[in-house]
Specification:
The chain is an alpha+beta fold. It is built from six helices and five strands. The chain has helices at 4-25, 32-41, 85-94, 96-102, 116-127, 157-169; strands at 48-57, 62-70, 105-106, 133-138, 144-151. Strands 3-2-1-5-4 form a five-stranded antiparallel beta sheet, sandwiched between helices. β1 and β2 (62-70) form a beta hairpin. The longest helix is centred in the first third of the chain and has 22 residues, at 4-25. The chain is globular. The termini are far apart. 36% of the residues are buried. The model has no long low-confidence stretch (mean pLDDT 91).
């Protein structure tokens, strides 16, 4: 008999494997990263309290907030955000936490050889994340993705760590706007 961790892992892989098809279904959306972050952070996948996605562009000396997710503000009005992209886009345009994240613009971590952990801690404090964890990955055009999260108390973050990192890399396929 499969244990709960095995079932949970299987469910996460199943959700992750469906994301490319969902992403293609809204390929023209200007806020694809919001769709993806909302999906990754929701209770059925990583069950995050908060998540903030940033892109560090050393060439332009910019660290820019791209999308934010707050469990208390999640979009529950629509059965499937992917089938109602206009409604979800309107909803996210008004989501307070998402707008706070999107307003972040500061000098690049990589360009300035700044201490990544210190910058992430400053961002997490600014965003009100408790016990933040972060994941980074290289992206095309020399950019770097940073996902700062607050895990739910009900999840073992060690069990999810590698899954979250892999899922976060999918954000690199979204246009940066």
């Amino acid at each position: 008999m499969e244990n709960n961790n095995g079932k949970r892992t299987h469910h996460i892989y199943e959700c992750l494997s469906c994301l490319p098809e969902k992403m293609i279904s809204v390929h023209g959306a200007k806020n694809l990263s919001e769709f993806l972050l909302h999906e990754l952070a929701n209770e059925s996948v990583f069950n995050l309290e908060k998540a903030a996605y940033f892109v560090d562009n050393p060439d332009f000396n910019t660290l820019k907030g791209i999308a934010g997710y707050n469990k208390n503000e999640r979009c529950t009005q629509y059965a499937d955000i992917w089938n109602q992209p206009e409604l979800f886009t309107d909803y996210m345009a008004k989501a307070k936490f998402n707008n706070i994240v999107r307003a972040v613009s500061r000098p690049s971590v990589k360009h300035n050889n700044a201490n990544e952990a210190s910058v992430v801690n400053e961002l997490a404090e600014y965003l009100g994340l408790k016990d933040p964890k972060y994941y980074t990955w290289d992206m095309k055009h020399g950019n770097h993705g940073i996902l700062v999260v607050e895990h739910s108390n009900t999840e073992s973050e060690k069990e999810l760590e590698e899954h979250v990192r892999r899922g976060a890399c999918l954000l690199g396929f979204c246009p940066v706007r």
